[in-house]
């Protein structure tokens, strides 16, 4: 499970009325890989969901020499009070960690020889899409061919 090693404050507030900011400008393009998974809507992805997507990649790509990159990290703590507890008494303990995702954010990347044409890579990304709570799309790197 992905958890931050240390933080200045243990607990954090929500955004205004729980809304997630609009479109992202950082981390929106393929950086390290040839093919990747891009978020199409905003939401929260827990560390358990990121881990399950990572397991799908390792299962489908086994020993093919492909390298996977996880471009998101769950840095935001979500706290919860126990059931049937009266009002007051402060904020509850941290239950899990989430990554806040804006539309356009690149979530995962895969690089390696023939990553663009490999059927296992395509299937791994399709299976990882089912593990995530937001809509995503598969993005490929553009290859420029020079005729000079």
Mean pLDDT comes to 88
User: What characterizes the major β-sheet?
Assistant: 4 strands, antiparallel
Structure classification = alpha+beta
| Lateral strand order in the biggest sheet | 3-6-1-7
- By CATH reckoning, the class would read Alpha Beta
Cα-based radius of gyration, to the nearest Å: 18 Å
Assembly category: single chain
Q: What overall geometry do the principal axes of the alpha carbons give? A: elongated
The total strand number stands at 7
Could you tell me the strand content as a percent range?
A: 25-35%
**How do the SSEs run, as a string of H and E?**
EEHEEEEHE
What is the fold's blueprint, element by element?
Layout lengths: L34 E5 L3 E4 H15 L5 E4 L5 E5 L12 E9 L4 E6 L7 H13 L4 E5 L8
Antiparallel strand pairs: 1-6, 1-7, 2-5, 3-6, 4-5
Helix pairs in contact: 1-2
